[in-house]
Write a structure and sequence with these properties.
The protein is α+β, with helices and mostly antiparallel strands and about 575 residues long. The chain contains 19 helices and eleven strands. A hairpin with a 4-residue loop joins strand 4 and strand 5. Helix 3 runs parallel beside helix 5 and helix 9 packs antiparallel against helix 12.
Length: about 575
């Protein structure tokens, strides 16, 4: 019987990364819960054993319940009944299976009914759900909105809402509006304080809300009358039980059909303020979005894995000209690159997750006691690394998911264009990953300051100091040359002192940054587990070399004067008209 955890030993490898010991010790507060909760681990090995067992359960459910239901869910989709969203029939089976297995609220402390898992194993579970059905992953993984409520809500709100999510109630983050997509400063959903009822009320419309008819909503709304920017926005909690919100429309989408994308109408809906007023966008949404972006990175790796599996199985079975097509260089080239992208993408995903685990856990501890000077420095370091790595993990993995899904169809040939084959669904599902929760272009914007201020070059320098296995040294030498080309490209752009040129070349710099970092991560993985990663390391480094050297040549030959040429399309059209 298939199991998406045990079938992929790479996950267990990342679960046992050296940083995990520190993460577990911090998360478990020195294993203090063992005296209060019978299921709490007594030491590090016991904790890892618990994670293994939970991930094996998730691997079974994803492979044998969620994946077999995915086609039916894709065809049926959610529907609207009397102003309420109703999931596809098989989605209810998925929800029931994950609830019975206790796979909700799993990162929350035990005192609220959670399992107290770090973000890293939670991200592994999220990846597996996406491998089975990316649409259901949206519903299941939105439980991590509870992290924001846990971090910024008061204790009464934690006691009220967290146990419900741990029991399997669903969540959503209601951010975007018809006139506020990426630019959330334009949010105008109105929040007013009801003096008579001593509560806040919301009025207005939210659009493109994933899982929009959830049980518990986190809502961004304008609480400060007369304001037009982010400083007038606050975060609110809406409980579906209180009413006041109708689903006006469910979007008919290209992919992820099982995930309902709703247009909501708030009509004097009763809500609770989460945290302080005016901090909704400035602080709370930023925390919410960083978690969501890590979730999309996991979702992307899951679909990349599914696409590779489909392409590989078909290539092994399909014959043309009396030859199995996997033996054609054009096909095995695609497959080897697909596998390398998955392994490199996983490596940066779980490296980022570990950084997030470390800073968030230390931040949580700081609310319980004063951190030592060493702990404060540790938190500062990993906060910066998490902030720098998140846009790389989200942006590049979402692009790789699209590329792998595309290649899976190409390997299938004409059959890939037929709706009966799974590869077309993966292709449709993947397309949104590089758009929602911040487009790839916005990930570039988030990363560019770390490119120009030398943060990534410093990180890369430290990574180059790590020894690799002797047989991998020729590959590392290639990376060293890439880094020098990259360094010259960064210096060239900075010395130009031209903002438009920097903006124009930012995507190429971003791609070079990410590919070099992923190449070094994969070399480290291959050193520690050559049986899992040596082949992918060789393929990925060569692929990165091809891309980095080419992009470096483009960057260093591009001048401010060239921008007029690239900008000329509209003027050309005017002349032709």
């Amino acid at each position: 019987m298939a199991n998406y955890y045990t079938d992929h030993p790479e996950l267990a490898f990342y679960l046992r990364h050296p940083l995990m010991k520190r993460i577990v010790e911090l998360k478990e507060r020195g294993f203090a819960d063992k005296d209060t909760y019978p299921d709490a681990p007594i030491d590090y090995e016991d904790a890892l054993d618990n994670y293994d067992k939970l991930l094996e359960i998730m691997g079974d459910i994803t492979a044998n319940v969620i994946e077999p239901n995915a086609e039916s869910v894709d065809l049926e989709g959610p529907h609207l009944v009397n102003g309420r969203m109703v999931y596809a029939s098989k989605t209810f089976e998925n929800l029931e299976a994950t609830r019975k297995a206790g796979l909700w609220g799993i990162s929350m402390p035990r005192r609220y009914g959670g399992l107290n898992l770090p973000i890293t194993p939670y991200s592994m579970a999220s990846e597996m759900v996406s491998t089975a059905d990316a649409g259901f992953q949206n519903i299941w993984s939105l439980q991590d909105c509870i992290e924001t409520l846990y971090e910024f809500g008061n204790e009464e709100q934690r006691q009220k809402y967290i146990p419900r999510v741990c029991a399997g109630e669903t969540m959503s983050m209601d951010l975007t509006e018809p006139d506020a997509g990426s630019d959330l400063q334009r949010v105008m959903l109105k929040a007013t304080f009801d003096e008579k009822e001593n509560c806040w009320r919301l009025n207005g419309v939210k659009r493109f809300i994933t899982n929009g008819d959830s049980d518990i909503h986190l809502v961004l709304a304008r609480s400060e009358e007369g304001t037009r920017d982010g400083r007038g926005l606050s975060m609110f909690i809406h409980d579906k039980r209180d009413g006041g919100v109708e689903v006006r429309h469910i979007e008919h989408k290209l992919g992820i059909h099982g995930s309902p994308t709703c247009e909501l109408v708030y009509k004097n809906a009763k809500v609770e303020l989460c945290g302080s007023t005016r901090m909704g966008l400035i602080k709370y949404v930023m925390a919410l979005m960083n978690g969501a972006r890590l979730g999309i990175a996991a979702q992307s790796v899951g679909v990349s894995q599914a696409a590779y599996a489909e392409g590989l199985a078909y290539a092994k079975d399909r014959k043309q000209f009396d030859t199995t097509i996997i033996d054609f260089p054009a096909v095995y080239d695609m497959l080897s690159r697909m596998k390398a992208k998955i392994d490199a993408g996983r490596s940066i995903l779980y490296q980022t997750a570990r950084y997030v685990d470390l800073y968030k856990t230390l931040e949580d501890i700081s609310k319980e006691r004063k951190l030592t000077p060493e702990e404060r420095q540790e938190m500062k370091l990993y906060t910066r690394l998490a902030d720098a790595f998140t846009p790389l993990a989200k942006g590049m993995n979402s692009e790789y998911a699209n590329q792998n899904a595309y290649d899976a169809i190409q390997i299938h040939g004409g059959s890939g264009f037929i709706m009966e084959y799974k590869s077309q669904r993966l292709y449709r599902d993947a397309r949104i990953f590089s758009i929602y929760e911040g487009t790839t272009q916005l990930q570039v914007v988030a990363a560019i300051r770390y490119i120009t201020n030398g943060t990534y070059l410093s990180v890369i320098g430290e990574m180059l100091e790590t020894e690799v296995a002797p047989e991998l040294k020729p590959l590392k030498d290639k990376v060293v040359k890439m880094v020098e080309s990259y360094r010259k490209s960064v210096e060239y752009v900075k010395e130009s002192n031209n903002q438009e040129l920097q903006d124009y070349l930012a995507r190429r710099l971003y791609d070079m940054t990410t590919e070099i970092i992923m190449a070094l991560l994969l070399l480290d993985d291959a050193t520690r587990a050559p049986e899992l990663f040596a082949k992918s390391a060789k393929v990925y480094v060569r692929m990165a070399e091809e891309n980095v050297i080419g992009k470096s040549a483009f960057v260093q030959s591009c001048t401010p004067e060239d921008l007029a040429f690239y900008r000329a399309n509209e003027k050309t059209e005017e002349v032709e008209a």
